[in-house]
Amino acid sequence: MTIDFVEEVLSSKAKLRIMDAVSVRPRTLGELSDATGISVQGVLRHLKRLAELGLVEERGLSRAAPKARVVYAAASARVRDYSSKGLTVVRSADVRPRRQPARVRDLERAAGDLLIQRRRIGETARKLGRMIDEASEDQEDLAAAVASLGLSDTERLIVEVALTEDTLEEGRVVLSKYYGIEDRRSIERALSKAGRFV
Predict the structure, then answer these.
(1) CB within 8 A of 143, min separation 6: which ones?
(2) Which of these, 19, 33, 27, lies nearest to 58 by C-alpha position?
(3) Measuring CA to CA, which residue among 91, 88, 92 is closest to residue 116?
(4) Does the 3-147 domain belong in CATH 1.10.10.10?
(5) Would you say the C-alpha torsion 76, 27, 146, 69 has a positive or negative sign?
(6) What angle do CA 77, 79, 84 make, to 5 degrees?
(7) Burial class for 12, CB neighbours closer than 10 Å (0-12, 13-18, 19+)
(8) What band does 102 get if pLDDT is binned at 50, 70 and 90?
(9) Largest Cα–Cα distance in the chain?
């Protein structure tokens, strides 16, 4: 992870919005087009460049959803956009197994975190930085918990979408619109399986 890619991502609002979206969870082309307000072809052009930088990877869904065949996810870094507050956070996405000694994990986490401040925000930035670190760790723990549940591709997709949208109803809309998953019983069953652990 170098400062060159950070400058390139920060200089493009579309790339920054794409990275912000895929840093939360994998997204389809349609989701990214809607999130950025640019055409699917434009999103593909940005994704190609972000993939060249090693920031985004394409993942096949192996029949997890009838509408979507691939999704795009953050590969080597998570970039969250807080530009309305003058702040962008870049966090290493290289998550190591939790069995490593605490000192090694702490050192890697400290080395992987990079906070870029566009303007002076003093004490507010320090408080926000602590909150972001806690939220990032919670997000990583949640992703690891979902990955360990032994769910099918479709069930995992349902749980990831449901847990990252603001409400369950918004999750259902996303599943229907972008992935073609409309069966409420399948959604409830996947959430029920995950609910015992998450």
Answers:
(1) 95
(2) 27
(3) 88
(4) yes
(5) negative
(6) 170
(7) middle
(8) low
(9) 50
